[in-house]
């Protein structure tokens, strides 16, 4: 069972991949998004699914702190619905509250420069989304 984790933003998509046993998540890449060519994002993800033998995708669902879903959460749900037209694997939404904040704190504590943090923050958030899902599924 291999899973792909996605942290979908308006400018980038952080991507993480699980190991073959579905125990650990590792950062894979960050896709830069282009408003004029959204289909490119879906095709790139479909290519990764094929290349790595992925059978499930976990997409971060940004919720408000009170548990409601706001505009960014709705965008993630629309993204998931559209992605389902490009891949045949299972797509799950996962509560991603505070994952970017936690990823930022982790990188700061590791003394990663601001410039380097900006390059990897989305990928780290994807790792945290996917790892949270894998940990929950394992229990």
TrEMBL record:
Main location: cytoplasm
Keywords on record: Cytoplasm, Hydrolase, Nuclease, Ribosome biogenesis
Top EC class, one word: hydrolase
Claim: Ribosomal protein is one of the keywords in the record: no
TM spans (from-to): none
Coiled coil: none
Residues of the YqgF/RNase H-like domain: 1-103
Localization per Swiss-Prot or TrEMBL: Cytoplasm
Family stated for the protein in its record: Belongs to the YqgF HJR family.
Name by which UniProt lists this protein: Putative pre-16S rRNA nuclease
Species annotation: Halalkalibacter kiskunsagensis
């Amino acid at each position: 069972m291999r899973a792909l984790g996605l942290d979908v933003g308006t400018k980038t998509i952080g991507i993480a991949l699980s190991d073959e046993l579905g125990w650990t998540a590792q950062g894979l890449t960050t896709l830069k998004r282009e408003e004029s060519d959204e289909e490119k994002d879906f095709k790139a993800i479909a290519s990764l699914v094929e290349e790595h033998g992925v059978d499930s995708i976990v997409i971060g669902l940004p919720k408000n702190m009170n548990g409601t879903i706001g505009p960014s959460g709705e965008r993630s749900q629309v993204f998931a619905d559209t992605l389902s037209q490009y891949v045949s694997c299972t797509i799950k939404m996962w509560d991603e509250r505070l994952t970017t904040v936690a990823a930022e704190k982790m990188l700061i504590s590791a003394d990663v420069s601001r410039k380097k943090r900006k390059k990897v923050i989305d990928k780290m958030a994807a790792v945290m989304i996917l790892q949270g899902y894998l940990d929950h599924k394992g229990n």
